[in-house]
Amino acid sequence: MASLSLFDEYPIHQTSEPVYFPATSDRNFYDRNWFCGFVPDQSYYFGFTIGVYPNRGVVDAGFSVLADGVQHSLCASGAAPLDRVPTRVGPVQLDVEKPMRRIRVTIAENDTGIHGELVFSARTAAVKEPRQVMWSGSRRTTDATRFNQYGRWSGQITVDGRTIEVDDQHCMGVKDRSWGVRILGAPEPRGPIPPTRPLFVWSQIFWPDHVSHALGFDDSEGRPLVRDAAEVPLYAREADVPGVEDAHERRPAFLQHRITYRPGTRWAESARIETSDAEGHIRSIQLEPLLRFQQRGLGYGHKDWPHGEWRGEDVLDYERFRPADLDPDERHNVHVQHLVRATDGTQEGIGLLEQFILGPYKPAGFADL
Predict the structure, then answer these.
(1) pTM summary value
(2) Which of 127, 156, 247, 360 is 20 to 30 A from 172, alpha carbon to alpha carbon?
(3) CA distance 39 to 43
(4) Which pLDDT score is estimated for 195?
(5) What is the DSSP letter of 9?
């Protein structure tokens, strides 16, 4: 079997194996791109993900568009080729045109009726989150790294016979690039030590001249497992972004999140993110949800399309639903993103709030789900 790639010419190896071979044989190793795009007038919100699971031999992708109260989703899955440049599965393809700057997403015409071409262009440098490690007894169930980047989208999406012109003067976007080990696919058989299922809060807000990032993982008692916050300058053009990381990035010294939940749900009705700098100056950001995007449309927690499962060669599926009609108590409806309006008392912003609580969470009074 062929094992070498063009990347093996470069001095980038981390193990004695060729680049395409992960350093771990853990079946849950993954390598994923995730994106979202939205416009302030709330007329549409879309998400895209494509992931490779080398130790499972699987590649899968999801593209989902929320417009006029209906979420339309394409799911694709197949065998992961050894050569993963470009990354593709079925009609979906991702091309890195310029690393850390520009990515093209192409969805060829197919039976789902969702197709188009979109280009993500960066307006910030990358923001690296701290390594995220979680345990179930002596086993690391999560060991992952992620960086985020912020920019704009241009192109065109056709869904349900309607073509949406994506204008880079209005459509903002977030890129999430992550890799490592995390719990994937169908639940594993339960043992005496259950895996950690923490609360997850993730917020990315576009302000006039910068983007603010906030990340929180809590355990079921509400104790923080991971906290991260950053503020990074927002540039007018891709060419103005100064490097892979920005020397002007600011890292607050403290992060606190407070969420008020819609009665009978695990979805936010409002939220507040508080950060503090080294001098103790507190910035309090109030978030008001405007619309809700279901992450199941991209495979996250989906009962039929979980990430990384082998489904066969070139399998394609389509789903449509109204988020307003979903049962909030169903497991695969818990993981959501909200388009939010933000204010810190001096200026206003627009962005997203992602949240996920699957198990018990004492501060909110949630029992097991």
Answers:
(1) 0.96
(2) 247
(3) 7
(4) 66
(5) G
